[in-house]
Amino acid sequence: MGRSDGRLLKSLSPFVRIIPHIMTRRSDAQNFYKQVVVVDKIDQYIKEKKAQGIELNYLHLFIGVYVRVLAQRPQLNRFVMNNRIYARHDILISMAIKRYLKDEGEETTVKFFFTGLESIEEIVEIVDRTIKESCAAGTVNDVDTIARGIMSLPNGLVKLLVGTLKEMDRLNLLPRKIIEASPFHTSLFFTYLKSINLDFIYHHLYDFGTTGIFVALGKVKKLPVVEGEQVVVKKCCEIGYALDERICDGLYYSNSFKLVKKYLTNPYLLDERLEKVEEDVH
Questions:
Q1: Per-residue DSSP letters for 25-65?
Q2: pLDDT in tens, 94-107
Q3: Is the model's pTM score more than 0.90?
Q4: Which terminus of the chain is more solvent-facing, meaning fewer CB atoms within 10 Å of its CB: N or C?
Q5: Domain 6-270, what architecture?
Q6: For position 139, what pLDDT does the model report?
């Protein structure tokens, strides 16, 4: 049976197809990577956009970069389910948010839906609208509704129901509505630690769902950077990645990170619209 969120890749090499049978869980296949980015050009770009009346910040820009890279590097948008590798249909980014920034502030999740062809202005609109809808007073989104419904049951039934949902997901029987609501069924999970003035972390991947990439953006701080033959101090941000090594090989990841850095060191490239989203040809 097919899945609502992805297409089974049938022409991969036997070596690639056997890897999910060897590393059966996402937590078995985690690799970690750190990226350091000088933010001078990012700050300049954000300042210029604000002068144009576009309220752009780091959250919008980084999401815009990852949407662009996912559109150009389709193997990053794969996932593993039931020991098989799928190409995801859509570009999705999830993140956890607090409805207000206090210890007792209620936490929820949001999921942004993209085509990959959005302008940076459209990225801003999608992100802001989605967060606003989830943070409005008295708002209960689909994730909250599902979680509250499950947790209204006795603990034994909760364990049984969650186990049943996991098995349905494994057998491609999980309803589309749950997959669309679930923050764990996404191309990339993003945590915006800069917003709470925290350094980057390496966040684990979830065995539930299909997320193969977790990105944690830390606060801006001064770091020594090599420029030519000199070491200079620059404002930088550090990014921690957790990656499912089963979805693509190391060279593909390496070239993808180079593309991320290309956009982050020259964000003006985001002003050039993509004409098409690359397809996973396998």
A1: SGGGSEEEEEEEEE-HHHHHHHHHHHHTT----HHHHHHHH
A2: 999 877 666 666 77
A3: yes
A4: N
A5: 2-Layer Sandwich (3.30)
A6: 67
